[in-house]
Amino acid sequence: MDISYDSFLIVTGSEDKDVRIWSMEFGSCNKFLKRAHDKGITCLSFLPKTHYFFTGGRDNVIKQWDADNFQKITTLKGHQNEVSCMAVSPDGSTLVTASKDKSIRIWEKTNEILVLEEEQEKEREEDKEVEDLPVIPGEVNKEVGLPGLKTMETIKCVDQLIEAIDIYKEEIMKLKEHELECKKIGKELPPPTPHPLLTAFNTSSPIKYINKVINRIKSSELEGTLLYLPFNYVLDFLRILSEFVDRGWETELCERCASFLVRIHFGQILSSRNFQPVIEKLKDKLFSQVYHTRDMIGFVRIATHLQQRAIDAQEEVPVFTSILDGLQKKRKRSKRQLERHIVSFT
């Protein structure tokens, strides 16, 4: 708790996340600021000669309030752990805060004009972004989070991937129907006309077409694309990855996509029987391919190391011979000089 400079107001905060503003004249509660912080309030302090006050909480932030108008002025972010204590300089120009992240921060007052409406709008936008973030089982307090905000590039990639999956399924159905027709008639019929997009990608194979579409997605946008891929397309996408694995294509890409999709849709995948055979197949095939890739990389590293040693050994020989030649020349030169000195002496 803290008392204002004129002994007119008392502000109190507690673990219930609320701030109460009391009148010392009548002992009544002037205002009840509900959920002033996301977690419990640990400290607060009035600014000298004003009715402004700061609060610090376990949610790692410091907030400034107006006790007369009962409005939040601004939010100060920077600490990585709960704010333990704070103090304001006598002239009110400096705020010092200490936190359990073992840091002390000094905040200085500026002459910048602060518009409350703009600050409130900015906070509403930030809250909206947080609400849009999908909930992933087991993901708590991640320092590096997933790309949660939809960008135009992410939306474009999701639309392209959904379109490619639909075209792939249509083309596979056309090929199966063509195969059945050929078996019924007993002779080979002309292949069906491929989709125009397959022609645009210079291929007539649906699996090669969707492989090119997936490879065109930037690595930085891949997880965001998979994050917003509708769940009814996840099974089809995993089946496509299984086809890649059967052909030995894109081992690293398949492992990355499959692991990410299983992680973010774990609960739904676990409760659906349709996913089990696909996941089992991916697990067996991917494990074997990953181990093979690891062994191949290890073999290449050893071969490269041995080759480097051989090159170094070859380069060391002329270096040592040149050093020996230099030493021999120096010895001959010093010997000649010694002989000259002896002759001149006698």
From TrEMBL:
InterPro entries: SSU_processome_Utp12 (IPR007148), TBC1_cilium_biogenesis (IPR051570), WD40/YVTN_repeat-like_dom_sf (IPR015943), WD40_PAC1 (IPR020472), WD40_repeat_dom_sf (IPR036322), WD40_rpt (IPR001680). Residues 209-299 form the Small-subunit processome Utp12 domain. GO terms for biological process: maturation of SSU-rRNA. The keyword Repeat applies. Pfam families: Beta-prop_WDR3_2nd, Utp12. Keywords: Repeat, WD repeat. One of its GO terms (cellular component) is small-subunit processome. WD repeats lie at residues 1-25, 34-75, 76-108. SUPFAM superfamilies: WD40 repeat-like. One of its GO terms (molecular function) is snoRNA binding. The keyword Ribosomal protein does not apply. Belongs to the WD repeat WDR3/UTP12 family. This is WD repeat-containing protein 3. It comes from Stegodyphus mimosarum (African social velvet spider).
